Amino acid sequence: MQTADSRTGVSRVQHHPEFYFADGNITFLVENTFFRVHRSFFERESEVFIRKLAQVAQDGISDDSAFQVEDVTSDDFATFLWVWYSPNYRLDRKSSDNWLVILELSTRWQFLEMRELAIDQLQNLKMDPVEKISIYNKYEIDRSLLLPEYKHLCTREGRMSIEEGEKVGLFTVLAIHQARERAMISAVAEECRSPTLADVDDEKLEEILKDIFNLNQYSTTASRRGADIHAPSGDTDSQSVQAQGQSNVFPIVGTPRSGANRTTNRPFGTGRVRRGFHQGESDI
């Protein structure tokens, strides 16, 4: 339970009600909340955490020497931990917003198996086609998974709005426009009277989209598992052509705090993941 100084209204640190385990062996401080969990989860898969924790192997064992995790809310960190401590049968009870948080953090911290799980779960949820394309572009997820969304944009009435175009990016806008033109040419070739996009053969449309988006050549395994993943950008359509191998390394764990359980002036709050990392920073 959160407490506050009645005179100042400043929130005091607290133990998370669900993710503070007596047998935990590493303590994190996120905003005003302590999380005591199991170190093996962080060292099993994430090269980011492996490197950082190896530098101070004996720290983070108590509240007084807790590691401070930066640029994430306590609510989002709890959502991230939930994946490890939840029974499998509860995985489908999370909303797309929850899985987007998990996708964001697993990509940022290079938890490849968790990233793949988040993508699998998002595939099972109903999402707006434009929003889904925007998200998959941002996190550089296999475009072949977006074939149904591309087909929807091709066959629906009307063109994309300016707002939708800004979300999906210039490349996708131009590719959909080209696919629609080729689909109409195909319908005319089939001698349809007053052809519309609805007259285009479904298999032919898929063939056109796969050709334009290079879906046959896209590496499904690499993009789903996050091979060479880096911090998500806001416009992968323009930035994906940058030279690969350029490493983006970000600070995620702060120096252990001595006396971390004292009153803090930082307000306790909820919200979505905050992007406080900056391209090119190197603190690890």
Attribute tags:
single chain, 4 strands, alpha/beta, 284 residues, 12 helices, 42% helix, disordered C terminus, disordered N terminus, 4-stranded mixed β-sheet
Characterise the protein shown here.
With 284 residues, the chain is of the alpha/beta class. 42% of the residues lie in helices and 7% in strands. The protein is built from twelve helices and four strands. It has a four-stranded mixed β-sheet, with helices on one face. A hairpin with a 2-residue loop joins β2 and β3. The longest helix has 20 residues.
Topology record:
Elements lengths: L13 E7 L5 E5 L2 E5 L1 H7 L1 H9 L11 E2 L5 H12 L10 H13 L3 H12 L5 H10 L8 H9 L6 H7 L1 H20 L12 H11 L7 H6 L10 H4 L45
Helix content: 40-55%
In spatial order, strands of the major sheet run: 1-3-2-4
- Uncertain stretches: 1-6, 238-253, 257-284
- The end-to-end span amounts to 33 Å
How many extended strands?
4
In N-to-C order, the SSE pattern is EEEHHEHHHHHHHHHH
Output the structural class. Answer: alpha/beta
Mean pLDDT: 77
Number of helices: 12
Shape: elongated
Radius of gyration from the alpha-carbon trace, in angstroms: 23 Å
Q: What is the makeup of the main sheet?
A: 4 strands, mixed
How much of the polypeptide forms β-strand, as a percent range? 5-15%
